[in-house]
Amino acid sequence: MSWLRRFVDRFQKKEAGAEDDAAALAALEAAYGVQDSDAFEDAWIRVCHLGRIESHSPLADLIIRVLREDWHTRHEDLVQSIHWDRVAGAEEILEYRTEHFPAYLKRLDNGYALARKCTWALADIGGARAHRALKRIANREDPVIAEFAEKRLRNW
C-alpha cells in the first residue's frame, strides 16, 4: 500500500465501530507479542484505516513500543504516523531512533531518512520535551543528523 493511499485513508476513516478499532489494536498487539513481521505488516494496514492516533492512547503506547524494536520493517511508517498525528509521549523514542537504526535502514542510507523524519516529528509535536530532545540531537557527533535537528530548532 503506497504512503499516499495510507495518508488519504487516515483522513477518510471508514464507518468503523469500536469493535473494528479493538480488533485492529489486538492484531497489532498479537504481532508485537510474537514479533512476527508478516503479521505486523497485515495488522499495520488495518491500523492505518482507523484514523488519528490519539496521544497517550493504547494504540500510541503500542506504536512507541514497536518503534523501539528491530524485527519489523515499518520504522519510517511508524514515525510518519507519529508525526502526522503529533503524538505527544513519543519524544524519547524519536530521539532514540535518530541514533539507533535498524540494520536494513543503516544499509540504505546510514539511517538518515529515519533520523530526518524523527526530527520533523519532534518539531511538529512541539513542547519542552521535544525541544530538549532536538537540542541534544543537534549536539551529536554525526554532522548530518545534527544539522537535521539544528534546522528544526532554527524554525522553532
Your description of this structure?
This protein has 156 residues and is an all-alpha fold. The chain has one domain: Leucine-rich Repeat Variant, CATH 1.25.10. It has ten helices and no strands. It starts with a helix and ends with a helix. About 4% of the residues have low confidence.
List the main descriptive attributes of the protein structure presented here:
156 residues; mainly alpha; Leucine-rich Repeat Variant; 10 helices; globular
Summarize the SSE layout with pairings.
Blueprint: H1 3-11, H2 18-34, H3 37-48, H4 58-68, H5 75-85, H6 91-96, H7 103-109, H8 112-125, H9 127-138, H10 143-154
Helix pairs in contact: 2-3, 2-4, 4-5, 5-8, 8-9, 8-10, 9-10
